[in-house]
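Hey team,

Sharing the Helix-turn-helix domain-containing protein run so nobody has to redo it. Sequence (101 residues) first:
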Amino acid sequence: MPSMAPIQNNTSGIMGGISHFPAPEHKETIAPLVLSEAKAAALVNLAPRTLQAKRLDGTGPAFVQLTRRRIGYSVEALRAWVAGQSVKSTAEASVKMEGAA
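Structure output:
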């Protein structure tokens, strides 16, 4: 009967000794304070044009005027707006939509 010697780990191959490489540095991720219109629209699952229309008629989320031509949305404002859009029935949604028009 052949002897059953333990299998030795060969660390001389391409992947060998990989544990000797230094661990990659973990870079801190900083969340943006303000999202672009396109990113904000994607976050709330709306088209950017719909978000623009809601901003113009005053029914959209609060926004930040960054420059004369650039606006943005804070994640907090988007969350608050979405929470304010929540309804419990289609009847309640209809009343809410009629009130917005």
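The chain has a mean pLDDT of 82.

Ping me if you want the raw files.
A.
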